[in-house]
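S1.2 Input.
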Amino acid sequence: MAELKMLAIDLGASSGRGIVGSFDGEKLTLRENHRFSNDPVITNGRMYWDILRIFHEIKQSITKTVLEKDNVTSIGIDTWGVDYALLDKQGRMLANPMHYRDTRTEGIVDYVEKYFSMDELYNKGGIQRINFNTIFQLAADMRDNPEMVAQAERMLNIPDLLNYFLTGNMANEYTILSTGAILDANTREYAFELLDKLGLPRRLFGPIVQPGYKVGKLLDQVQGETGKCNADVLTVASHDTASAVIAVPTQEEDFIYISSGTWSLMGTELKAPLINAESNRLNLTNEGGAMGTIRFLKNIMGLWIIQESRRQWKREGNEYSFAQMETWAKECKPFQSLIDPDHPSFATPGNMPEKIREFCRRTGQHVPETVGEVVRCIYESLALKYRKTVESIESLMGKKAKVIHVVGGGTKDKFLSQMTADACGIPVAAGPEEATAIGNLMMQAIALGAVKDLSEARKIVAASFELKRYEPSTDRNMWDEAYGRFCALN
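S1.3 Output.
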């Protein structure tokens, strides 16, 4: 086949990039053509996404495909989940999209429980309860700014909003909608029984489309800025984790994955939702995947904790590389201090090393003082959280995991990958690093008819990118003892 070129716009919570994918029928190759910082803006006590700057940067990436004569056939956008914009009857944003870490949803669960219980919410949507889920953000809008909701004609999640900016056409993509607890997990339609109770107008929620839907061509105005680009804008699995799971290089059905980045999304792939009292107790989530699949997973705070610690040290005048931090961590005594990565105190920006010290003081542990001690505490705690999550998934599935596939940016962290294998007692296969962009591109290729299905896409990924394997250590005693102490923290 003639070489197929596609553009993936991959937006994370701290950075974004454009990646040109070239597919020759057997292998996929990548070339990053644009990278930019994605920085939230805090003003008057509220935290927003700088969505117009993000859109500007997307156009820069498209411009580069034109200048470099890539002749891309299609464009797909993936982003983080849950966040959205409200638009009026003229299709104009009523406000910049709020950041999921904004504090307006603190205490929102108590407010929502005036309308329905959390069990009712989970039994309908099967989504892990986190106070920034879309349903809680919409409830906060209804409580705090009902006039804006009354003006709103449509809600679009972030990738759908950016597709609209590019094409002028609105579409609500399934995988991104599924992250916010506003869908019925079984029917895969809006959970209007719950949305109605909150007083949310049904007009906000447009027709649901699947990954691979053609949204449209670039607007003439956009092409006036970017240069002539005849690409189709397609919906991909537009939640970044949904894209990353497409790129898990396996042919097994019962695999465990970690999409490792700012968040660690750890789970498996199912054909239907798994919603029962035990999954509710364990707070596991059922999110939509590509080609009718369900991502049964746990949202874990992930590398956010170390990223925010590094930002704090930089604010103090000390800029450390990840390699330096890893070296210092290796030199420290193991298992002196442990934290629960998902404790609410670690969810918001601020002095993360001090938050970790305060958690350790409060729980009667050694207080980590050096950079190495803090970093080792974070890594060991994450690895032990992964073990706890694996055990939860295994108990619900009634099957033992044979390997853990780690994909995404976190695969660069070899120390954490080895710790994950050691903590869980299961081999780790790490790679590919660019899983989200790869999954984005593979979904475009499926939509264009160049790739048959998910199974074929995963074979192509395995053939195209190098993987690294980590075997668990034979000495389990130290990890088992630490795991007991870790479980006692919760």
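S1.4 Remarks. The mean pLDDT is 96.
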